[in-house]
Amino acid sequence: MKRFGKSHLDVLFRQVVAAELASARKEVLVVTGEFSAFSNYIELQWAVRDAVMRGISFKIYASSFEPGISRKLIKWGCKLYVGDRRARNHFMVVDGKTVTISKEHPSGSCGDRHGVVSKTGVRKYIGIFKDLVHNGKPIKKIQGPNPLLEWLSHPVDLGARTDGARIDLDMY
Amino acid sequence: MAVLVDSGIWIAAYNTRDARHAHAKDLLAKAENPYITDFILDEVVSFLTGSRALKKVPAEKRMENARAFLRFVQKSGAVDLVKVSEADFGMAKTSYENLPFVLTLTDWTSVFTMKTLGIQKLLTFDGEFIRLGREEDYRFMQVHGCRNRA
To answer: A68–B75: do the CB atoms touch at under 8 Å?
Structure first.
């Protein structure tokens, strides 16, 4: 068992999760709240994407997903499930061999994530995953309006004139 | 079809006061599967934060706009953010040093990232990409959004 403590910007958590994802060979199971670690930490998005591109299967249970995040994950081929039941500790099982447990921390905080990576008790967590998925429901379709068109319909006034064709000249 | 979107297009689409705002919005609205690289993202955010063009805009406002763009890229699901690999950066640097095109190092990383990921379409206002696309090794690129600079 390897412990990781709280760290500035959750650097230890991020390193541990990225390394576990890089080691995956077959399947990753995730139980989370809003999957905010994926939403907030870009290198973890890349780690998931790299694993998907290697052919790794992802099944993710959450109490909710931000629309943009579910859109991205479904597009990549991940299987998503949502349900009312929340797991106290969030966890990720890689290849049925290791479980990374992120212990309870304040929602939306950065720097409070801590937990363990363990090779024991993995079956118990697979069982929790299956139970949550059984009582939840799958998200199969990308939902909501096209976010690019939404963004394009709400441009901003940056406060000055620019010319997109000459940003190299106007950069400095 | 996957399409890589260059910095100038993002900035022009974002800023209602950009000279090419309407054109950029039109181009992006037709993009089915848009991509951005980490290098392009850095270029956009650097421009929004500290460019000469925006130097009279209050710093807090510039930071707010740059952070909003970062959030859009990371959380909206509208665009795929991909990283430039070490190998592609190496190819880009060698090309920047040796080939007779007026392209930035970031531009070259776009070219090789497209090649690696099989992205054939590029949205850009930089006409030099059209000139490059005429070369045998770069004919995989379909360049949209600009006129030839040469």
So the answer is: yes
Task: Determine how β-strand B2-5 pairs with β-strand B121-123.
Answer: parallel
The domain of A19 spans 2-142
Considering only CB atoms, A164 lies closest to which of B12, B62, B81, namely: B12
Contact check, Cβ <8 Å, A66/B61: no
Contact B2, B120 (CB under 8 A): yes
Specify the pTM.
0.91
What is the ipTM, given to two decimal places?
0.91
* pLDDT per position as a tens digit, B39-78: 999 999 999 998 999 999 999 999 999 999 999 999 999 9
DSSP, res A95: T
> Tell me, what CATH number does A79's domain have?
3.30.870.10
- Candidates A167, A169, A172: best to mutate against B (most CBs of B within 10 A) is A167
Structural domain total, chain A? 1
Dihedral of the alpha carbons of B112, B115, B116, B120, in degrees to the nearest 10: 130
| Chain B nearest C-alpha distance from A122 (Å) | 31
pLDDT digits (tens, 9 = 90+) for A36-71: 999 999 999 999 999 999 999 999 999 999 999 999
Interchain CB distance below 8 Å, B74 and A168: no
